[in-house]
Automatic annotation (TrEMBL):
This is DUF4293 family protein. The keyword Translocase does not apply. InterPro entries: DUF4293. The keyword ATP-binding does not apply. Pfam families: DUF4293 (PF14126).
Length: 158
């Protein structure tokens, strides 16, 4: 039953987590030297590099967690016959999304120390999309539980 509302929520969750892979998560600009440090899901890199500023740090944990979360959400859509498995996958996806947010926050702290400026960095759209995915996951779990209660009530009527 792909046309159910929880399937729409799970599909939007997968799109949000896939978008994290392609959007910047955090950035910081030094106003004096015009250097910009950008955190994406794969690396921390200087956007406007000087010859000596080509140091990058890989952040593949973020991309791995985001892709795993999107894959679990897509797999969860097609498990509509087993609602208990859907609920377990939803809880596992909740853990993956929280881990993605935690990894993004950790790597933003690492990047904060790379460019030693007292001006704080700014979180970009890639940081806020996992929070949206978290809300969508909770809504999907709520509607899956509601379907299970409906099926149980119909079994009592027989």
């Amino acid at each position: 039953m792909i046309q159910r509302i929880q399937s729409v929520f799970l599909l939007l969750l997968a799109v949000a987590m896939l978008s994290v892979v392609f959007l910047p998560i955090w950035s910081k600009t030094d106003p004096l030297s015009k250097q910009e440090l950008v955190l994406t899901s794969t690396k921390i890199a200087y956007a406007h590099t000087d010859p000596g500023m080509s140091v990058t740090t890989s952040t593949y944990a973020i991309v791995a967690l985001a892709l795993a979360s999107a894959a679990v959400a897509l797999f969860e859509i097609f498990q509509y016959r087993n609602r208990f498995l859907q609920l377990k996958l939803g809880f596992f996806n909740l853990l993956l999304i929280v881990a993605t947010i935690g990894a993004s926050y950790y790597y933003s702290g690492v990047a904060e120390q790379m460019l030693n400026v007292k001006i704080p960095g700014t979180f970009e759209a890639g940081f806020y999309l996992p929070t949206l995915a978290l809300v969508l996951n909770l809504l999907a779990s709520r509607f899956i539980r509601r379907d299970e209660q409906l099926v149980r009530s119909m079994d009592r009527l027989r």
